[in-house]
Amino acid sequence: MGSLFRSEEMALCQLFLQSEAAYACVSELGELGLVQFRDLNPDVNAFQRKFVNEVRRCDEMERKLRYLEKEIKKDGIPMLDTGESPEAPQPREMIDLEATFEKLENELREVNQNAEALKRNFLELTELKHILRKTQVFFDEQEGGVNQTTESMTRALITDEARTAGASMGPVQLGFVAGVILRERLPAFERMLWRACRGNVFLRQAMIETPLEDPTNGDQVHKSVFIIFFQGDQLKTRVKKICEGFRATLYPCPEAPADRREMAMGVMTRIEDLNTVLGQTQDHRHRVLVAAAKNLKNWFVKVRKIKAIYHTLNLFNLDVTQKCLIAECWVPLLDIETIQLALRRGTERSGSSVPPILNRMQTFENPPTYNRTNKFTKAFQALIDAYGVASYREMNPAPYTIITFPFLFAVMFGDLGHGAIMALFGLWMIRKEKGLAAQKTDNEIWNIFFGGRYIIFLMGVFSMYTGLIYNDIFSKSLNIFGSHWHLSYNKSTVMENKFLQLSPKGDYEGAPYPFGMDPIWQVAGANKIIFHNAYKMKISIIFGVIHMIFGVVMSWHNHTYFRNRISLLYEFIPQLVFLLLLFFYMVLLMFIKWIKFAATNNKPYSEACAPSILITFIDMVLFNTPKPPPEKCETYMFMGQHFIQVLFVLVAVGCIPVMLLAKPLLIMQARKQANVQPIAGATSDAEAGGVSNGGSHGGGGGHEEEEELSEIFIHQSIHTIEYVLGSVSHTASYLRLWALSLAHAQLAEVLWTMVLSIGLKQEGPVGGIVLTCVFAFWAILTVGILVLMEGLSAFLHTLRLHWVEFQSKFYKGQGYAFQPFSFDAIIENGAAAAEE
């Protein structure tokens, strides 16, 4: 059987590589992505391995590339991504790459430092320019010029002590300082000046209208110009300390107007020169980054490949001659020749004359599980692996899930309109998958939708099919073939009496409606939900029982493949018989009831004589005598029904002790005959042992001898109780198909009745506007609630039915995934981590 239905057969191989050829051979294997290496040095510290220096060099190169990437993104320069994956460079090329990255980093850091120094100088000159302008305004506002301003300020700053002493003072020359401060610090700065100087300073401030650029981080900051007048050196020292504490920048400001004008002209000239130099610096930086952006993606790929190769070589062992590297690896058996060809290519590239040696080893270890997938089956396999990775070579549920998953979803989601919306969305993602995949967004929700595009498309298509079966499109019906039900009563009486319940039989002309539900049920009132309930409830049980029986049959494939004769005879057969005699018999009763009874008055085959399947099943299990039927009706649906039901229940109950005791007793008897001593503490499942067709791995049934008898009895008891009780609960669990289908249909009908029908009832030009608005609101609710929320709910319920009700019958999921050394996976994971 192919790998689609079982995981690939794996082989543990030993690989011998010459030291000079090891790098090239591992590079070829990384491009191939079919080899999982084992760590042969688990006790050796990562810093004590042979190629740790090369790994460190790669880490350093990655750091430099990340620095370049950050600078490129900061400038918004697009990085060229051809989608090609360059080959891993030769070891000697590492030196050239290191030199290139070192040169680029040093050049970029030097340019950034120069640019920062120029920006800081530009900021200082800009602030000085604003100070000279604003202080000139301060001085010009005072009448009489600077001298009168000084005299008035001097009189204002006479201290309280001088007033108390009655001293008289003449005009005194005041000092002042000017600077800039962040606008948000200005109120606290003003309060501190007032308190520290006891009100003996005079502060004027004005806002700088345009924001200034911080040279350190490039942020835009808002600042204000201030000028402080004071008297005496003591206040001057105090004012400067306060300015320093609030990180205010002080600038020299001449007292004479002519000197201020001369300085302002010099400042403007220097600003113009700085603008020219800054522009040239930015142009040079931009050219460096553009040149680096063309090769950055390829450089990242090359460095990550080199690092991955040396990290893999650290898993190898050196032989005693120090000239040969020894590795152990898991490989798919079908790909051994492909791997040997890749090793030969690597040897030829390295120029080595000694060919590599790949030996297959015998082992009893459980190999990893490897299921080949493509873009279509990948999403379905991911659903299975989310429950648990399959044990080695056990049946893979993914191929069957491709059909059963969207079908069971559609049973709950059946609506032609909603299914069409979902199918079109999935089809759009499939048609545009190359462009959408190339965008590589980090939006997790979108990535989930895009990864499951084929699941979404199939769920939509199957929902359209079940919508046709239900004859349901946005809660309305399609009258494709014309209703086959015709009224046999007086039409006026029927139209006037809203509470009159008509017979579903009606007057049929020929055969019933050829496909799906008759559209007449759409206009039914009281008995519409009753009919839909009965129909959907029965098909839910039918699909559920068939699904569970299929799961039990899958266990037969596992037992026969692993040659587990005991489990085949004393687990599979009793389980299948138990399920068939009780629950499949109940399904048969449903079909017998549908075939034998009809909406006629011809007893004993009329609907009045039809027994309840649920009551019949309960009476069967409890050995109750059925209640007497109505007059002219038969007690049983077919001859010998009572005897068959009693026989079926007795045989089904008899299967329980067989499932419970047969396997442990046979194992105990076999141990006594073979006189095998059990090994304490060893635990494993009968089907979990990896058996290859060639017999190179552990046997499928022999390892029960490694378990204690008490553990076997306990395990078998749990397994039997879980299966017997689970058969009942799992059958009832499939009723969620009926419940969600009914809820979905009712929600769609509520939206139509309560929302869209309001707009459809409006007339005239206003009615068109109202209908447009109501339709938009209805469409939003339909997509948001019925398609997205109800779709997610149905998806989760379908997932539960597969994980619990279906896979529990045969699927262990106790394996571990095959994780080959693959450059594609490493680069993809590295790119994802870099984006985060």
UniProtKB/TrEMBL annotation:
Residue ranges of coiled coil: 51-128
Residue ranges, compositional bias (Gly residues): 691-701
Pfam family, one: V_ATPase_I
Subcellular location: Membrane
Record GO terms (molecular function): ATPase binding; proton-transporting ATPase activity, rotational mechanism
Region described as Disordered: spans on this chain: 685-704
Transmembrane intervals: 402-430, 450-470, 539-557, 572-592, 643-662, 737-760, 766-789
InterPro entries reported for this sequence: V-ATPase_116kDa_su, V-type_ATPase_116kDa_su_euka
One Gene Ontology term from the biological process aspect of the record: vacuolar acidification
Alphabetized UniProt keyword annotations: Coiled coil, Hydrogen ion transport, Ion transport, Membrane, Transmembrane, Transmembrane helix, Transport
GO terms under cellular component: plasma membrane; vacuolar proton-transporting V-type ATPase, V0 domain
Topology in the lipid bilayer: Multi-pass membrane protein
Function: Essential component of the vacuolar proton pump (V-ATPase), a multimeric enzyme that catalyzes the translocation of protons across the membranes. Required for assembly and activity of the V-ATPase.
Family as reported in the entry's similarity comment: Belongs to the V-ATPase 116 kDa subunit family.
Protein name: V-type proton ATPase subunit a
Lineage: Eukaryota, Metazoa, Ecdysozoa, Arthropoda, Hexapoda
